[in-house]
Amino acid sequence: MRLLLNVLWFVLGGLPLALGWWLAGLLCFISLVGIPWGRACFVIGGFALWPFGREAVSRRELTGRDDIGTGSLGTIGNILWCLLAGLWLALGHLFAAVGLFCTLIGIPFALQHLKLAGIALAPIGKTIITRA
């Protein structure tokens, strides 16, 4: 079932969505200061390409250790990201989810947009894992 949903997602908008995240990542890499956000954009782009059966989790919860993205610098980075780009990306995913919730067939896709909206608000310090 995951494969079918992922293929439908890919065909019906997942590829342009992932390309948009990857373009944002490339733009972030132009400056050295934007590299953490660029890396996060590439991770989210892969998640946006094939979201069913995967989820975003905190690296701190996964590994049990802090790193630069899960500490205070990561928090500051997430606040800056949220104010500059994350809020707008999350709102876009939220509006897409609301539209998809109006149809019975769109509900699984709406749930994926809600996951992407959550990670769009605070991507630094997160990693994508496959659910069993």
How is this structure best described in words?
With 132 residues, this protein is mainly alpha-helical. It has one domain (2-130). The chain has helices at residues 2-29, 35-49, 59-63, 72-101, 107-121, and strands at 54-58, 126-130. It has a two-stranded antiparallel ribbon with strand order 1-2. Helix 1 packs antiparallel against helix 2 (35-49) and helix 4 (72-101) packs antiparallel against helix 5 (107-121).
Topology (SSEs and partners):
Layout: H1 2-29, H2 35-49, E1 54-58, H3 59-63, H4 72-101, H5 107-121, E2 126-130
Antiparallel strand pairs: 1-2
Notable characteristics:
mainly alpha; YccF; single chain; transmembrane; two-stranded antiparallel ribbon; Inner_membrane_protein; 8% strand; 132 residues; membrane
Note the overall shape.
globular
This entry's quaternary arrangement is: single chain
Number of strands: 2
Question: Low-confidence runs (pLDDT<50, min 5 residues)?
Answer: none
Order of helices and strands: HHEHHHE
Question: Reading side by side through the largest sheet, how are the strands ordered?
Answer: 1-2
> From the helix content, strand content and strand pairing, which structural class follows?
mainly alpha
Instruction: Report the major sheet.
Output: 2 strands, antiparallel
Q: Termini, distance in Å?
A: 13 Å
Q: Work out the strand percent.
A: 5-15%
How many domains is the backbone divided into? 1
Q: Determine the number of helices (DSSP H or I, runs of at least 4 residues).
A: 5
| Helix content percent band | over 70%
- The whole-angstrom Rg is 15 Å
Mean pLDDT: 89
